[in-house]
Amino acid sequence: MRYLTTFTAFLTIALRQASLVASHGGVIGYDIASKYYNGFSAYNTPVGQSTIQREWDTFNPITNPTDSFLSCNNNGASLGSGQLSATVDAGSQVVAYWNQWPHTIGPVMVYMASCSGACASAMPSDLSWFKIDEAGLMSGTLTTGQWAMGELVANNNSWTTTIPANLAPGEYMIRHELLAIHTSNQPQFYPECAHLVVTGSGSAQPSGNSLVRFPGAYKVSDPGVTIDIYSHPDVTDYTIPGPAVWRG
Ligand SMILES: *[C@@H]1O[C@H](CO)[C@@H](O)[C@H](O)[C@H]1NC(C)=O
Ligand SMILES: [Cu+2]
Known about the structure:
By secondary structure, the protein is α+β, with helices and mostly antiparallel strands. It has a single domain (25-231), classed as Coagulation Factor XIII, Chain A, domain 1. It has helices at 2-23, 148-154, and strands spanning 27-32, 35-38, 86-89, 93-98, 108-114, 129-135, 137-139, 146-147, 158-162, 170-180, 188-199. The strands form three sheets. It has a five-stranded mixed sheet. A four-stranded antiparallel sheet has the order 2-1-4-9. The longest helix is centred in the N-terminal third of the chain and has 22 residues, at 2-23. The protein starts with a helix and ends in a 49-residue tail after the last strand. It binds 2-acetamido-2-deoxy-beta-D-glucopyranose (NAG) and copper (II) ion (CU). 2-acetamido-2-deoxy-beta-D-glucopyranose binds at residues 29, 97, 156, 158.
């Protein structure tokens, strides 16, 4: 009887865990230059994993915009000898795929950062990030409108981004970030990073206000971060957080 009770309690916890797992997610793969790359396998040890993505350990969101892991999720570590990178021409597309993505309310943002030739040893929180793509409220109102995240879900849980055509070649990280805002005044950040080697003959490099840190780029008081979409049924604009998109 005691064993049965223990087992039942275990099962309850296991099921609860499973439903939590099912309710969030992250980037599980990329299509880059006609090649598919698996992402990191969350909930598994990094030992033996080999991927272009940085380590991230759970599907859970980061809920504090100044969290120390906001750059490349928890824990954002390099995979050492398992750390790969994808080669991509400036001006070409990167498609990111999410798993079982459930949220349809909030913006999609994509950033890059130069690693000064050394992504494998770079600390994501030390990098200077620039935004290459963003989309927020596409149509309608905050409460009932169509959001970029809804388009992502409708598009096979994927988002396609173009690397700025004139970006100088070199080693970069790319950072896909979903900001789910379906819970009033409680943002959920889902960032994942991957290593790229950008090729081409471009020469543009972002500077000044285009460059931000994570954490650092967002504040709790940003209007697009702490927001109650349900109390603004007639508002048709949303302020995406972070810097303006840099287009080279
Ligand atoms: C949908 O996404 C999966 C990755 O999650 C990919 O393997 C598949 O090719 C995609 N399907 C289409 C039609 O693009
Ligand atoms: Cu979730």
